Amino acid sequence: MNALVNKLFDMSGQRVLVTGASSGLGLHFARTLAAAGARVAVAARRVERLNDLVGELRLAGHDASAYELDVTSRQSVIDCMDAIEAQLGGLDVVVNNAGVSDTKRVLDYNDHDWHAIVDTNLRGAWVVAQEAARRMVEARRAGCLINITSILASRVGGGVGPYSAAKAGLSHLTRSLALELARHDIRVNAIAPGYIATDINDGFLHSEAGERLRSRIPSRRFCASSDLDGALLLLASGASRGMTGAEIIVDGGHACAGL
Ligand code: NAD
Q: Of 41, 46, 93, 147, which sits with the fewest C-beta atoms within 10 Å of its C-beta?
């Protein structure tokens, strides 16, 4: 049984790009995938912040490399993928994780806020997926794309209108990409996390408002980054060979909280 499980989720030799890997979930995804045997390419705007992670992974005997990437610039995405191709020979899996959020009332958002949020979370993920898929198709290589959406793609919360709209777009785009890329043997799935405790939201999640939020989650707890490991390894590995266009919710039941 152990041998079967190990084989199903084995990522040995798989070349995986994790965008936005300099902090939070992306950093955790890179560690998880490397531990499963993947050759991990980590990318973000500030390469110097990725170097510690690469050093840590290499010290543990893993294959890791860092690349500069701004997902809001198509040229930056192309340059990043060229550099990965030169070093690793291409990509098998892409985790489209880079994202930004903001919290303001509807009446307080301006166009600049809207563009910044939608450009990163939706257009950025689109450009990364499109450029990665183009290369996989040209090389006649099977591949796998994983978009990181949110339970805010299907539920609403105060103060996060543009973010929710962008994530809803990405959720639907996942299915459009899955439809068109299936003929090229490229699978496209998504993970929709609920509120996950990371360094970024630690203050809020432990505040009074955070406590109120936690009390509305059916499991009464915020998930940890490690709670996403199962969904990530399932979607990134051959264990999900028959899955495309799926979105896995990991939220302690938050999205199905009673009204
Ligand atoms: P985070 O801020 O720690 O990580 C986001 C990462 O994206 C950072 O490394 C940041 O530098 C990078 N990034 C931002 N803009 C970029 C750009 N233009 N180009 C390249 N990289 C860029 O936040 P996180 O919580 O780790 O979020 C990771 C992903 O998970 C995001 O897509 C977020 O929307 C999603 N998510 C997070 C939660 C949560 O509770 N933490 C819940 C649902 C979804």
A: 46
